[in-house]
From TrEMBL:
Single Gene Ontology MF annotation: polysaccharide transmembrane transporter activity
Domain called Soluble ligand binding: residue spans: 118-166
Pfam families hit by this protein: Poly_export, SLBB
Official protein name in the record: Polysaccharide export protein
InterPro entries in UniProt: Poly_export, Poly_export_N, Soluble_ligand-bd
Keyword Signal among UniProt keywords: yes
Signal peptide span: 1-25
Keywords tagged on the record: Signal
Residue ranges constituting the Polysaccharide export protein N-terminal domain according to the UniProt record: 38-112
Organism: Propylenella binzhouense
């Protein structure tokens, strides 16, 4: 029956069906507000490098990377879960494990030595992975990636961010702060 329809009508019908199917795709939650997801204590994840100090225990004091499974491997106590923990929470976990197996009343301090990288894609001079510095905004991240190209939309960018294990996506102004692990996408402007 569709064979006898004029080509323009078939094309319009096909476009309408495809547009309707686009709404069936699962969507990720929108990024509420960039500042809302930046506030609060920093949560550790894969790629963060931590400086762990166990006082009076030089053999345990070292830098450790959070692995892809979200753990930190320490001598004598093995893997300790670090993903989505604050440094204070991880300090308590390590102190508890050391105290129950190796040391009496261990004094543990943790600081982030290097944050996990962020990524900039799209209409920038040098898309890629970059080292995060506390206080960065989308604008400073884009500057680190070689700045906008001549075709870039310079007012807003898309961002993907994981918060509490959930992936959020949305548009933010370039003056908004970013976090380690964010993926920033600069789109091409229309005119």
């Amino acid at each position: 029956m569709l064979v006898n329809w004029p080509p323009l009508l078939r094309t319009l019908l096909l476009c309408a069906v495809l547009a309707g199917l686009g709404g069936c795709a699962g969507e990720r939650p929108p990024l509420a507000s960039a500042s809302a997801t930046v506030e609060g204590p920093y949560r550790l994840d894969s790629g963060d490098v931590l400086r762990v100090v166990v006082f009076d225990q030089p053999s345990l004091t070292n830098t450790y990377r959070v692995d892809q499974a979200g753990n930190v491997a320490l001598p004598l106590i093995g893997d300790v879960a670090a993903r989505n923990a604050t440094t204070d929470e991880l300090q308590a976990r390590i102190a508890q494990r050391l105290g129950s197996t190796v040391l009496r009343k261990p004094d543990v301090t943790i600081e982030v030595a290097n944050y996990r990288p962020f990524f900039v894609l799209g209409e920038v001079g040098a898309p890629g992975q970059y080292e995060y510095v506390p206080g960065m905004t989308a604008e400073t991240a884009i500057a680190a990636a070689g700045g906008f190209t001549a075709r870039a939309n310079e007012r807003t960018v898309r961002i993907s961010r994981t918060v509490d294990g959930k992936l959020y996506e949305g548009r933010i102004a370039v003056v908004q702060p970013i976090r380690p692990g964010d993926t920033i996408y600069v789109s091409e402007r229309l005119f």
